[in-house]
């Protein structure tokens, strides 16, 4: 009996291209960054097929700049190689007569900045262990990206450079994904520039990044430390009133005593934060994996830590509470007598 593969080979020669077009229906604007805008979209196929995706379009005001276009294409080529449960997947790179776009995995949930803001609006805080667990998942994604090699087997030297809270997504199913490698660099993928250009969220930058010095994967470790501190404290301890103030806090000001700022931070977690946030890269965790291992021990060695299922329950309970508050507000609005 002929196998399915044999039947396909009878219709299409090995290596032959199957040309097909894809259509997309744009929905709401999800995010806007320095290089592009992201929409929730529906990919429409044949016979009624549809799939929800995220569509990142290059910003029209920059579409004529060749270096920006190269970086946008480089991002798509690079991230398409990153197949990991803690990294938002890129499916395709497309173009129309006047747009270049990246088709990405749609994550139904909130970015961490939105999550903290919505919790704060309810007078709540993100539970400590969920904050640590979210960063653990991001460290898994970073560790994988840092280890990635090219077709020649050599390390790509990928550094994300911008893993701040808006680029950390938490789905209502409990999944945590890192997104937006728009300013990452990796050998052979993105435009070659001699000096490091300072781009990204300053209050999440490592000392070497914010001062324009050469950096490596340990810069992402520092950013992960800032993310952890921010999720725990509900505020970024490095965010200043100006860029100069932020730079001073990152490069010179004494690190705060995190345990004093939040009694939930015990000595073990405090040590993890301090080591991740060492100004000297040589004193910092040597890799995302090294920090991840310490975080994992903290979460799981002496107690039953959170997991995808418990985070899913937390996110869905939180979503229901937000929906209930919205319905109450809407009913209250309806009860207001007309003027």
Task: Describe this entry's structure for a reader.
- The protein has 339 residues and is an alpha+beta fold.
- The chain folds into 2 domains: 20-105, Phosphorylase Kinase, domain 1 (2-Layer Sandwich), CATH 3.30.200; 109-313, Orthogonal Bundle (Transferase(Phosphotransferase), domain 1), CATH 1.10.510.
- The protein has 11 helices and 8 strands.
- The strands form 2 sheets. A 5-stranded antiparallel sheet has the order 1-2-3-5-4, covered by helices on one side.
- A hairpin with a 4-residue loop joins strand 4 (90-95) and strand 5.
- The chain is globular.
- Residues 194-198 and 326-339 have low confidence and may be disordered.
List its salient traits.
339 residues; alpha+beta; Phosphorylase Kinase, domain 1; Transferase(Phosphotransferase), domain 1; three-stranded antiparallel sheet; 11 helices; globular; disordered C terminus
Describe the structure concisely for a colleague.
The protein has 339 residues and is an alpha+beta fold. The chain is built from eleven helices and eight strands.
């Amino acid at each position: 009996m002929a196998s399915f593969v044999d039947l396909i080979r009878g219709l299409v020669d090995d290596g032959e291209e199957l040309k097909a077009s894809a259509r997309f229906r744009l929905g709401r604007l999800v995010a806007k960054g320095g290089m592009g805008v992201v929409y929730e979209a529906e990919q429409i196929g044949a016979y009624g097929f549809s799939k929800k995706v995220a569509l990142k379009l290059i910003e029209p005001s920059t579409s004529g700049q060749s270096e920006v276009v190269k970086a946008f294409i480089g991002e798509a080529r690079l991230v398409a190689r990153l197949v990991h449960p803690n990294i938002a997947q890129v499916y395709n790179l497309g173009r129309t007569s006047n747009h270049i776009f990246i088709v990405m995995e749609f994550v139904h949930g909130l970015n961490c900045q939105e999550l903290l803001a919505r919790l704060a609006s309810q007078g709540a805080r993100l539970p400590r262990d969920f904050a640590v667990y979210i960063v653990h998942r991001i460290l898994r994604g970073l560790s994988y990206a840092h280890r990635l090699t090219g077709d020649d087997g050599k390390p790509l030297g990928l550094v994300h450079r911008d893993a701040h809270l808006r680029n950390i997504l938490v789905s209502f199913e409990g999944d945590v994904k890192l997104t937006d490698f728009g300013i990452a660099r990796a050998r052979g993928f993105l435009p070659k520039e001699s000096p490091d250009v300072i781009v990204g969220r300053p209050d999440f930058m490592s000392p070497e990044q914010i001062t324009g010095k050469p950096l490596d994967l340990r810069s992402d470790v520092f950013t992960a430390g800032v993310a952890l501190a921010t999720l725990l404290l509900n505020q970024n301890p490095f965010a200043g009133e100006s860029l100069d103030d932020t730079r001073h806090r990152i490069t010179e000001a004494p690190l705060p005593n995190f345990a004093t700022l939040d009694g939930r931070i015990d000595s073990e977690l405090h040590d993890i934060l301090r080591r991740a946030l060492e100004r000297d890269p040589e004193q910092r965790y040597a890799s995302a994996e090294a920090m991840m291992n310490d975080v994992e021990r903290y979460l799981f060695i002496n107690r039953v830590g959170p997991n995808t299922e418990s985070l899913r329950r937390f996110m869905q309970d939180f979503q229901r509470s937000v929906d209930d508050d919205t319905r109450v507000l809407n009913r209250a609005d309806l009860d207001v007598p007309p003027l």
